[in-house]
Amino acid sequence: MTRVETILQAFGKKAVKDLRKSLSDKLQARASKYKSKYPGGSSNPGESALGASIKFTIIDSKINFSLNDYWEAVDGGRKAAGVSQDAKIDKWIKSRNLIPGFQNKNLADRLEKQSQNKTNKEKKVLTKMKFSEALKAMDFLVRRKLKNKGYQGNQFYSSVMEDGRQEKLIVAIRKAIKKEIEIAVNVNLKTKTYDEGGIQE
Fold it and tell me: pTM surpassing 0.85?
């Protein structure tokens, strides 16, 4: 492994570790903000599918990072636009265990509305929405929000990769290449002899 490849290997490992932590921290912060929970009732998403997809390869002394293709939307956000019917919004909702909180809020809102009704009519006993109904309702609301307002990115990728590390990598590679050239020149010079007639092999 060349000096450059060694530097790229170290850079890649550190970047992958930092990107995964950045993504997890951003997802956890958003979960806490909206009081949503991941499986197990925690606001910590752990290793997400996107986080697990973050990898790097080194080919011809060049480093390439690969992530699931939706990483740009997570990082930079999404403009307001319609959502494909094929989009698995319901799967996303279930993965974050959002339904219980939605059911509770929906019931609380209906109870409050009922309590404000001053008529003498006998009040109906209100109960939580069924899971399937809540999932369908929330799927509709998420799609409507994406269509009308879009999605705010969390900059999990750009905040890491634009923190100055790439500039430091360039400097380190330049020094490594210069060192390799110096070594190569010194090795070549040691294999030659000199006399008054010039250099002889």
Answer: no
